[in-house]
């Protein structure tokens, strides 16, 4: 492992500042997950260190994030406080991410459509806010989005004035903290310090309580038959969301540093971090956008900054546990409300009405499914619908191109040859990729065109502009060739690329396209067709064609 030391000063300052920003967030996210604040700190330490050491984005800071916390919190609620199974899910999620990276899935995860990403990220932001409303005013909401929503009236009726005051100060601090001050003291850390001091004067507000100040113990994976499906499902969701979250943050880092990350290596690094986190009772993590931005803006450029950020948090765990015990829950809730607010894609929501309505509808649907159903359903439905919509658009374009296809001769020689053929030789120029979406219209269009006028005796199929063809389109081409042959017509093929030819050959769909009727250039095929027609090798009145006039 090679380390760059040419930016050591910037990495120290960036890592230190990112560590300061990560402290309150790690504590808050740990509490929100149901595993406790120390699990959040351990998550920031282990995921942050190993993802930086082995990952593929030099300046990225990793640790607990909103999407990961939402999944873990849901799992904790389902398992009724069985942390050993939760840590098993985190461990398995890390292994799955390593497999993702090893198999090269990093290049495909980035293909998830933006409305889907925007929808479930915004949904996660909404969930975080909903889960924190009760804590913001001194209550303890149950797990799950809907129970937390139902609990809000109860929390209001049992309002803890001390907690509400601290929560209000926390909200004001994180939302109104000047960006210029954030370069020296991050807003969340400022809110943590101010609200902790305020909490000492308002002892009625609930606080974190005792936090261990020692290294974590080993948590070996536990596999129980009755909970295995739930654990595996959570592991897959954690792995997928963590991968998407991390790679999106990597893109942000690339834009800021003018570099290019290694997606698959990043997944391996995140996977190692989460695997270790699961073994030592830590919260799952991913690439953290805000902390990464803080790191880069304050000078961090290499993986040393991410490792130093983790080591700073380790020092906090070992030395400042008793002080952290006095932090009010309302302070962390206020910080998390800001986290949820920032996750919501307000920029897209403000401008979505100017773009395609389908994309907006898809985003809103995914958001709703994320909040009120579950994340895997939201992402799955979103990806499937987005894929179907894309296929439909492509199919419509292909069908339109086929329907409106107007052949224009490439040269005077070609025009003269076709004029000599008196309509008995027809050229079909397929001007783009051919897929299953247009397969049905492909054969229909050719048949309709060949029936017009005198009827074609020879067909020249030009595939010069077809970069690829799927199985359905290959079968349609086979049908065209079969129908033409049975009707006594001759078929000539030109411009058949190797990729397209291999698809036809692999399906044995080219048996009506013999090698002696294939040409590299269209003019050659037209020339041969006219010659065959004039020499009587082609029946000028094939079956189904109108006879030639006398």
Describe the structure.
The structure is a single chain. The strands form two sheets. A four-stranded parallel sheet has the order 3-4-5-6. A two-stranded antiparallel sheet has the order 1-2. Helix 1 crosses helix 14 and helix 6 (114-136) packs antiparallel against helix 19. The chain is mainly alpha-helical. The radius of gyration is 32 Å and the shape is elongated. Strand 5, helix 23 (498-506) and strand 6 form a beta-alpha-beta unit. It folds into two domains: 8-390, no CATH class; 406-534, Transcription Regulator spoIIAA (2-Layer Sandwich). The chain has helices spanning 8-33, 37-54, 66-78, 83-102, 106-109, 114-136, 145-157, 161-176, 179-182, 187-201, 228-257, 263-279, 289-297, 303-319, 321-324, 329-343, 346-351, 357-372, 375-403, 412-421, 436-451, 471-486, 498-506, 522-534, and strands at residues 62-63, 286-287, 425-429, 458-462, 490-494, 518-519.
What is the radius of gyration?
32 Å
Query: What helical percentage do the residues reach?
Result: 55-70%
List the total number of helices: 24
Query: Care to count the β-strands?
Result: 6
Q: How many discrete domains?
A: 2
The helix/strand class is mainly alpha
Work out the strand percent. Answer: under 5%
Sheet bearing the most strands, described?
4 strands, parallel
Unreliable stretches, pLDDT < 50, 5 or more residues? 546-550
Average residue pLDDT: 85
Order of helices and strands: HHEHHHHHHHHHHEHHHHHHHHEHEHEHEH
Q: Strand arrangement, largest sheet?
A: 3-4-5-6
Distance between the termini: 85 Å
Shape: elongated
């Amino acid at each position: 492992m090679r380390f760059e030391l040419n930016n050591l000063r910037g990495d120290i300052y960036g890592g230190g500042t990112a560590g300061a920003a990560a402290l309150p967030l790690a504590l808050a996210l740990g509490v929100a997950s149901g595993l406790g604040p120390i699990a959040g700190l351990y998550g920031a330490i282990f995921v942050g260190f190993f993802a930086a050491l082995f990952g593929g984005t030099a300046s990225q800071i990793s640790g607990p994030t909103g999407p990961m916390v939402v999944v873990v919190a849901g799992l904790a609620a389902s398992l009724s406080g069985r942390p050993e199974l939760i840590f098993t899910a985190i461990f398995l999620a890390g292994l799955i991410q390593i497999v993702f990276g090893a198999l090269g899935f990093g290049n495909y995860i980035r293909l998830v459509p933006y409305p889907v990403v925007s929808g479930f990220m915004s949904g996660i932001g909404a969930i975080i806010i909903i889960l924190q409303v009760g804590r913001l005013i001194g209550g303890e909401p149950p797990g799950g989005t809907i129970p937390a929503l139902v609990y809000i009236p109860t929390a209001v009726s049992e309002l803890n004035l001390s907690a509400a005051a601290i929560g209000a100060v926390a909200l004001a601090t994180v939302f109104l903290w000047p960006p210029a001050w954030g370069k020296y003291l991050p807003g969340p850390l400022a809110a943590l310090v101010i609200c902790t001091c305020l909490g000492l004067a308002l002892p009625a507000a609930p606080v974190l309580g005792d936090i261990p100040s020692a290294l974590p113990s080993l948590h070996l994976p536990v596999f129980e038959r009755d909970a295995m499906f739930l654990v595996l499902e959570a592991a897959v969701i954690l792995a997928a969301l963590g991968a998407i979250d991390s790679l999106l943050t990597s893109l942000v880092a690339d834009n800021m540093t003018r570099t290019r990350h290694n997606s698959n290596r990043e997944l391996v690094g995140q996977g190692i971090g989460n695997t270790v986190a699961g073994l030592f009772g830590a919260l799952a993590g991913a690439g953290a956008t805000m902390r990464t931005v803080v790191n880069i803006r304050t000078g961090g450029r290499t993986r040393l900054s991410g490792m130093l950020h983790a080591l700073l948090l380790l020092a906090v765990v070992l030395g400042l546990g008793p002080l952290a015990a006095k932090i009010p829950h309302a302070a962390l809730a206020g910080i998390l409300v800001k986290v949820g607010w920032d996750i919501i894609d307000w920029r897209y929501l403000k401008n979505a009405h100017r773009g395609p309505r389908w994309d907006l509808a898809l985003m809103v649907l995914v958001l709703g499914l994320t909040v009120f159903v579950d994340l895997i359903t939201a992402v799955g439905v979103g990806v499937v619908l987005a894929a179907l919509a894309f296929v439909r658009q492509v199919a419509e374009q292909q069908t339109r191109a086929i329907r409106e296809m107007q052949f224009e001769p490439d040269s005077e020689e070609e025009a003269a040859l076709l004029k000599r053929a008196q309509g008995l030789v027809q050229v079909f120029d397929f001007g783009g990729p051919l897929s299953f979406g247009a397969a049905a219209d492909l054969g229909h269009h050719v048949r309709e065109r060949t029936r017009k006028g005198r009827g074609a005796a020879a067909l020249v199929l030009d595939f010069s502009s077809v970069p690829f063809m799927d199985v359905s389109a290959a079968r349609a081409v086979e049908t065209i060739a079969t129908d033409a042959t049975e009707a006594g017509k001759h078929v000539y093929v030109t411009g058949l690329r190797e990729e397209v030819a291999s698809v036809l050959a692999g399906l044995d769909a080219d048996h009506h396209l013999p090698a002696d009727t294939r040409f590299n250039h269209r003019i050659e095929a037209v020339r041969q067709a006219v010659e065959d027609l004039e020499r009587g090798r082609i029946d000028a009145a094939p079956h189904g064609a109108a006879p030639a006039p006398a």
